Amino acid sequence: MSDSNTLPVYDGPKCRICCDLLPNRQIPLPDGQWVDVRKQGKTTLSLAVWLSDVYEAAKTCINCAVVIEALESFEGTTPVFEDDMFTIDGRLGTSLQLEYNLVGDDEIRFIEVFSATGQKPENCIGRATLIEPEITPRKAASIAQTRLSECVDFHKECKVDKKPFVPTRVVHVGTANDPPYLVETTEDMKTVDYIALSYCWGLSQSLTTTKATLRSRLEGIAWKDIPKTLHEAIEFVQHLGLSYIWIDALCIIQDDGSDWEKEAAQMKNVYENALFTLSATSAPDVGTGCFLARSNPVHELHSVEPQHTYYARRPCFDTHTKLFSYANDTEHEMDNYPAMTRGWIYQERLLSQRILYCAFDELIWECRSSITCECSPKSLHHYHGGNAIVSYKRQMRLVTDPSHRTQPSKNNPPPFHIIDMWLSLVQSYSQRAFTKYTDRLVALSGIAQKFQPLNIGVYHAGIWSSEIHHQLAWTRDANPKALRVKEGSRIPSSPSWSWCSINQPCVFDDVMDPARIKTRLTLLDYKAELSTPDPTGPVSWARLSLSTPCVEGKIILSPPTEENKSITPFATYISHRDKQYLMTADVPQWCNTPQSDDYLATTSDNKVLCLELYFTTKGFTDNVSVNPDSPWEDPSHPDKYYNYRFPWLVLKWSPSHDAYRRVGIINFANRPSFDQEEQAPGEMMKHAVVKVVDIV
To answer: What is the chain's alpha carbon radius of gyration, rounded to the nearest angstrom?
Structure first.
């Protein structure tokens, strides 16, 4: 039986170059017929085409003519592409995407072709939404009101019982004629709706409330004194028909330490209970404004049949991916989204029930149920629901529900999975920048408060007592792109064993199966002295007491070459019984680093203590002992080789503390990366002796 008798076939597209911009018809069968994949339910189009072929076909094919006009709208006539080739991708019901490289330009460029009408799509040029060419506080308020009404009326996941809470102070937005003023709230205001503002201060904040200005702020704030970002946010709330907005610079007395500490501990309540948060996502400072001038032109295409209206523009998915798909890290260029790189704003984003992002090219609404933007009538949640932030919001609603806290289940996960969620957030959070890195624990307090009811132990300095062996295994991210401060340093008063003790991003090993983790570590004592009344805030002193296998070793520094010493730190090794193991130092060991306790090259005593945290196994049973020379092998299947993790902390004795301080970590692993060497811990495990160790 021939293929044509078993497959739905047709005579083929009118244009063999663009396939009529319909879901792909496959290449002809031997008898010359084409497979009609649309009858098989296929809805996608994916083509790689020669530009010269499309130009030739455009003489008779109206769809190819549309593609050429879209390209020339942005690149001029007869653009020159790398290899003369570009791709066309589409799906029924969504816009068409053109992807290409210009000769001599490494940047991949995109063009979106779409219809803005409500007609039924006849091909893969589907519907999208025309974005307002100019956005104002009034227009933004209209868009926000529509999204808010949809959320309140139809989103079951977003329904929350609002706590009777209002911040200590809010700004009354006034009117067009009457200036705004600060309000000290009272008990009878606890049910009022307010908007919270999330924004970057920039290098300076010209308008704040201080002890000296508090009285005048209560009387009124002149419009001329209000920076543009705050000015537009206040106007926006006026057009929403609300009276109050919370702005940290005005609602916290900035030079009153006790007030600042009290209000910082309230951030969780401030952002959780706001009607929604207005995020000045693309503004680097208070003088820029929330609603920026838009520079993404839209071209109406004329090479179309009279019944159609098609447009071409640069797609907004740069904003979509940077805000959502790449939300877990900041390695990707975030020049257009400076707010997303800041530590304080990360917490505000996590705590907010709903957010309106004011990106440079469009507004995006995010709630638990949807991610909706100006450029598309459809929710983006399906495409961007897997990042740490969106997943966190959904998971936290489940795990914080008291009705789910009886037995471990999907809605009440065991401690390991809760700690795993915590570490995912901490790893992302550690990549964010701070003006003062001493604020790291303060800005994390609201998130820590969310985790407190989840039975994961005592919290100090960013680490919980439950599953502590997993949390102590953090590593400074040695990727050069991750360096926030080149020199690197310790954060004063933060305990050396905590990831928040350094001003650098950190990473944690991702162990998917908790059954693989075995530990011989016992937590004997875990105590700290708080710097503020906030139990999840910063500490002035903290101490761990552990019992676990340990070995002694010596630090060896391998200097970089003379020509690289300004860009490459020392390689750091631990020597034990004539073997050397690569260590990642917590503070990079630069050749020109000033002498300090963390500069290991100047330490006259190079002795260290190496402390086992845990090891991972695969295919072992409880009655099979681990071979310390080859713990990654399954004794019952010696031919099989498994991934393994054996993190060991490296400690130095500190006489002034009468305890050890962490200086680095050895990551024994059989999955080497650019900053790790494959190495086995057999010798160290074989000679390890259980000790009680105090670490500060």
So the answer is: 29
